[in-house]
Every structure is written in C-alpha cells, then in structure tokens.
Amino acid sequence: MWFNICFVLFCIVGGGNSLSKEAFRYNGDTDLNHRLAEEQLEARRCQDCSCGERNEEPRVVGGTETNVNAFPWIARLIYHQSFGCGASLINDRYVVSAAHCVKGFMWYMFRVKFGEHDRCMQKTMPETRYIVKIIAHNFTLTHLTNDIALLKLNKPIEFVHSIRPVCLPPIQSQTFSFAGILATVAGFGAMAETGKWSCTLLEAQLPVLSNDECKDTKYNRTKIKDVMMCAGFPETAHKDACTGDSGGPLVVENSDNIYELIGVVSWGYGCARKGFPGVYTRVTEYMDWIKDNTDDACYCDM
C-alpha cells in the first residue's frame, strides 16, 4: 500500500506501540504456554545461511516483471482476506514493514505470505505465517515520521531458494546518506496511480536523492526529516512505487553483490507525479531499535 496524504487504502486508527499474542492471558491453557516455549526454543536453532542474495543475474529495470523469486526476501501482508502491504524478511522470525500498514489494526487478522512471484496464480501455495506480535514505532500522521514496524511470525521460516532474508546495512553505514546510488524498489503494487495492482512482482531502479535535493522538490521542506530518504526521478517521474507497495523494500547492491535494506516504502503524493519523488523510511536510523526488538531471532551472515 503506497501511503499518501489521501490514505489510498487504509485509514489510520489509534493503536499502541506493541500488539502481542503473548500479551493476552489464556486461563488454564497450558498447551498454549507449552507451544510458545517450543517456538522460542526452535527460534534459537539457527540455520547456516547467507542474507541478501538475489536469485538471478540479469538486470530487469523500471517497473517491469522480475525473474521468478528474484528477491527472496519479499513478503506480502494480508489483512483478513485483502492484500494490504509489502514487507521484507530480515531473519527467521521477523519481517519489517511500514507502521502505517499495521497500526490500529487487529494483529491476529494478519498473515504473511512468502516465496511468491505471481500472487494471482492459484496452482502454487505460498509459504504462510501468522503474526503473534507487532512492534510499531512511534509513527505520527502529523509528521509522517518513524514509519516502520516489526512483525513476529508464529514460527521460524525455513530458508529455501525462494525464501531468504535481506541483509541489514552494516553499522558503519549509519552515517552514509546513499545519495546518488541506484537503488531497487520491488512490490506487487499498482502500475499507475489509478491502475490495478500487479499479479507479478515488479521492480524499478531509482536514484537515491540527498535530503537537501528532496527538500528542493515540490514537497513542503519541513515534511522531509532526517529519518526519511527520497528516491526517484522528480523531473520526469517515469518510475515510482505506488499503491500496494507500502512497507516493501528499497535495497542497494554492495560491492560484494549482496543486497542491503536501506529503505521502507512509506509515503508520497500520488504515484509518479512530477516533483514528488517517493519517500522512504531510512533504515539506518533504526538499526539499534531493530536489533533490540529481534534478539530472539537468528540472522544470516552477510
């Protein structure tokens, strides 16, 4: 879901910072406690794995279909029976998405689907997990800041060819702006502002703008905060994220051909409008918060 000032899909309702299945009391349900204990033990049995590995070599750019399972960390958030947002697998127990995708909604109504390329194809069943905990940052509609959330899966993901995590940026990149670097955004969102959502996973390559460059676009300068980053083509607007892409990843390829998550699709005025590049949550600003809230999960090596 591409979040804009008009709220393209969901309205934001008040919600707490942490919504958790474990927070509810089930009187006399010893089986539930036993299952939770088993899940916690299972989460500590780490797999031998690597993160950020794309599944194919050829480059496909600019709002076109990716090769099958090109980005194995891509996930879809399903609320009740409706597709709402994108997400990224970062370890065996958590996905990261946008806070506006989850705040105010009932956590137990969410499912996460993994390993999809064509979401409309009914012949293949994607890997599915339920959510037992949502940790949403202090997102505010007034400032549009802190648009990031962590969703804990009901059981660990087994990594296979089509499902693997993206890498988080290294600690030393926390002061790096990424300005001028070509990044990739991917999702199942709409192909135009009033268009239908895509059945197949699409990707587009976008240059990252400095925050000063973003403030010089048509946006109100005060709306662009340090915890945000902009990417796109303000003058031509021929590529952009759109409705249905919110919460999905903005990634860059490092010198070792490993992909790192630097942004989470957050907000914008419409889709692909001249003068209004896409605005993303700057992941490097939340590294400590992410690690502190996912210390019960297993991360793969870079």
Automatic annotation (TrEMBL):
<keyword id="KW-1015">Disulfide bond</keyword>
<keyword id="KW-0378">Hydrolase</keyword>
<keyword id="KW-0732">Signal</keyword>
<dbReference type="GO" id="GO:0004252">
    <property type="term" value="F:serine-type endopeptidase activity"/>
</dbReference>
<dbReference type="Pfam" id="PF00089">
    <property type="entry name" value="Trypsin"/>
</dbReference>
<feature type="domain" description="Peptidase S1">
    <location>
        <begin position="60"/>
        <end position="295"/>
    </location>
</feature>
<dbReference type="InterPro" id="IPR018114">
    <property type="entry name" value="TRYPSIN_HIS"/>
</dbReference>
<keyword id="KW-0720">Serine protease</keyword>
<dbReference type="GO" id="GO:0006508">
    <property type="term" value="P:proteolysis"/>
</dbReference>
<dbReference type="InterPro" id="IPR043504">
    <property type="entry name" value="Peptidase_S1_PA_chymotrypsin"/>
</dbReference>
<dbReference type="InterPro" id="IPR033116">
    <property type="entry name" value="TRYPSIN_SER"/>
</dbReference>
<protein>
    <recommendedName>
        <fullName>Peptidase S1 domain-containing protein</fullName>
    </recommendedName>
</protein>
<feature type="signal peptide">
    <location>
        <begin position="1"/>
        <end position="18"/>
    </location>
</feature>
<dbReference type="InterPro" id="IPR009003">
    <property type="entry name" value="Peptidase_S1_PA"/>
</dbReference>
<dbReference type="InterPro" id="IPR001254">
    <property type="entry name" value="Trypsin_dom"/>
</dbReference>
<dbReference type="InterPro" id="IPR001314">
    <property type="entry name" value="Peptidase_S1A"/>
</dbReference>
<keyword id="KW-0645">Protease</keyword>
